[in-house]
Amino acid sequence: MPATAPLLLGDEPGSFPHSVLAERHPAIIRQVRGAFPYGPDRRRALDALLVSCTEGAIEPLPADAHDRDRWGAWGLDTYAGRSWFDVPWLWSESYFYRCLLEAVGHFAPGPWQGIDPFRPDKLAELDSARTDEELAALDGLADLTADEQDRALLHGSLWGNRADLGFRLSAETSDTPAAVPALVADDSDTLWSLLPPSGAGTLYLIADNAGRELVPDLLLVSRLLAGSRVERAVLHVKPHPYYVSDATPADVLDALRRLTAAPGAAATHGRRLWQALTDGRLTVRAHPFSCGPLPYAEMPDDLRAEFASATVTIVKGDLNYRRLVGDRLWAPTTPFADLTGHFPGPVAALRTLKSDVICGLDTRTVTALDAAEGPRWRTGGTHALIQVRA
Ligand SMILES: O=P(O)(O)OC[C@H]1O[C@](O)(CO)[C@@H](O)[C@@H]1O
To answer: What atom in ligand 1 is closest to the CA of residue 213?
Structure first.
């Protein structure tokens, strides 16, 4: 793997990482503060986090935190006392969400234990008219060929990644039509070659956001099971709330209920997924490393062994992409295969572009994107990619 690209930090005012730490995180705290009638203690803790994350230093977890040792090994022992802006951006963002859960009492015995501070917004999105429209559109797929249906659901899952509630807090014009093709890399033929009809393999899907991303992810899984492109599927979600809208096991159940309660084809998918869960062809996993602040190159052995057994692992979303290729300012033409050689088995990234990290593009595409949009194509969410290392 090339090791020479600069690591992304949040220390440069005007940069995208800096804006996430200095603007998005405070906005998230304010949103959470308004979402529940937290008592004075929780409000004080949220206010303290607001000050700490913008002006203060990284603080250690409480001595009795259940995951204190884990976070120590993940870098907290090194980074405590330093500015949020001076440590790896991937790390400081991830630790911010851990501290947010601490502030709202998510892990402490008491009335807020286990409560997802982002749930109201997740549910509002799941219950929205746009979700109704997207589910109704499934009925129109019946007239397509099997391959066309496969492609439609792959693209549904890909573009579902734009439905990211944290991203919307700071996205400016993400609905602006792009002057260059929306898909900047498309290795979908390689992906389909890894998933032939009548395949007997296992798909791993590392999910990203709940709601309007998780629903199309589940639909893709349902389609691959129904078309016998895979025999089993394993869905990896987050063990606890993370990055505002990331999917947890509770969100999987909400999405599944949404499907089974819908009319038409959506309910057929919902029933198929329900059945697959009950007979073991679909498994949901929530590994602690999924909420970790480190790249996948540093994944623990048990996870490595799991992904090594996959026919292919689909990695969804922007954050997972950063964790997959390394959170560095790579030259955009650096081969995807070079940066993902560490991953145990074939891997496919499905992502809309919402951060500066990018690799695997050809020179012509990069030149056209830069000429048409300046640097905004990297972060605006208007472009997407399907990159595969077989
Ligand atoms: O939900 P996704 O696609 O992982 O996106 C996460 C978002 O958060 C970021 O990590 C910045 O906070 C960006 O990469 C992206 O905008």
So the answer is: 1
